[in-house]
Specification:
Helix content is 41%, strand content 20%. The protein has helices spanning 3-13, 19-30, 33-43, 99-110, 131-138, 143-158, 174-185, 221-224, 227-236, 264-282; strands at residues 58-66, 71-79, 85-91, 114-118, 163-172, 191-195, 211-217, 241-246. Strands 1-2-4-3-5-6-7-8 form an eight-stranded mixed beta sheet, sandwiched between helices.
Length: 283
């Protein structure tokens, strides 16, 4: 697919561009409204087409834990009949806790961890079925309260009877930026992995105590513009970090429900690197 179309869709999903305006621009790029409507399903997430993850070796459940202004909803997944597990907080993209991120949470559990996929939109009643509505609600979250709600999620994991007290986090897109913010705000965090996420301010990097792993798509110009300053700050402050840029792949390359952006080879390599870091840092 034309990279200009993918870039337009990326811009739409990360801005306040209305769906009507997006479709107008898409029609211009494709040549007609009819072709735009044909291309659209290839751009949007398709949770039905992508195989959901299932394993008889794990159990998962919907739970709540106390947040700043009420209960936070989350999915908790873990291996059956195992204790002293390393704990991983999973942070969703900018549409909320959707089926893809629930699958990611289960996949992490299948690797031997206690995994918690938090719904940041809990203050609004939870993630809506309409992804555009979810994107709108993400922009209405109180930034400081949102960070505190995730920090409370990490505290929940550290106190869990089946955990070993060690914590890591992994986030995607909006969640990738949040993973870096948690590294800045939680000195107890052992590891933070950000997939194509916005970078923290350079002056905040000195607060990071966790090992940091950053995954970027080579074609993701919007997010990649922040890499040089972030890497310079990481070096300057002697932070343990690794940066991987996957050539020729787009933003959201890990999302297997997004057919035009998913890249299987890059996703598998980034995933293995992520799991290896978790096994090293939190057991």
């Amino acid at each position: 697919m034309d990279q200009k179309i993918i870039t337009l869709y990326d811009s739409y999903t990360h801005s306040q561009l209305s769906r009507k305006e997006f479709m107008k621009k898409l029609a211009i790029l494709t040549g007609s409204t009819a072709l735009a409507l044909t291309v659209l399903p290839l751009l949007e997430n398709n949770y039905v087409a992508a195989a959901s993850f299932n394993s008889e070796d794990i159990v998962s459940e919907n739970i709540t834990y106390p947040g700043v202004d009420g209960d936070m909803k989350a999915v908790l997944a873990q291996p059956k009949d195992k204790k002293k597990l390393g704990c991983v907080l999973v942070i969703h993209e900018n549409r909320g806790l959707n089926p893809h991120i629930i699958d990611v949470t289960k996949r992490i559990a299948a690797e031997g961890f206690l995994a918690l996929g938090v719904d940041a939109l809990s203050p609004f009643g939870g993630t809506p079925a309409d992804e555009d509505k979810g994107r709108e609600l993400i922009g209405k979250l109180d930034p400081e309260k949102n960070i505190q709600n995730y920090l409370k999620g990490l505290a929940y994991l550290r106190d869990h009877k089946n955990g070993n007290g060690k914590t890591a986090c992994v986030g995607f897109c909006w969640g990738g930026g949040m993973a870096s913010k948690l590294a800045v705000n939680d000195p107890k965090l052992q590891a933070a992995v950000a997939y194509y996420g916005a970078q923290p301010k350079a002056e905040e990097v000195a607060k990071i105590k966790a090992s940091v792993m950053l995954h970027y798509g080579g074609l993701d110009e919007r997010i990649n513009a922040g890499i040089p300053a972030y890497e310079a700050a990481l070096k300057q402050n002697n932070i343990d970090y690794k940066i991987y840029i996957y050539d020729g792949v787009n933003h959201a390359f890990n999302n297997n429900t997004s057919p035009t952006r998913y890249n299987e080879a890059a996703a598998k390599l980034a995933w293995q690197r992520t799991i290896d870091l978790f096994k090293t840092k939190i057991g």
